[in-house]
Amino acid sequence: MIKAGIIGSTGYAGQELVRLLTQHKDAQVVWYGSRSYIDKKYADVFQNMFQIVDASCMDDNMDELAKAVDVIFTATPQGLCASLVNEDILNKVKIIDLSADFRIKDVSVYEKWYGLRHASPRFIGEAVYGLCEINREDVKKARLVANPGCYTTCSILTLYPMVKEGIIDPDTIIIDAKSGTSGAGRGAKVDNLFCEVNENMKAYGVATHRHTPEIEEQLGYAAGKPVLLNFTPHLVPMNRGILVTAYASLAKKATAEEVRAVYDRYYGKEKFVRVLKPGDCPQTRWVEGSNYTDINFVLDERTGRLIMMGALDNLVKGAAGQAVQNMNLMFGLDEAEGLELVPMFP
Question: With b meaning 16 or more CB within 10 Å and e meaning fewer, what string describes 285-307?
Answer without folding.
Answer: ebbbbbbbbbbbbbbeeeeebbe
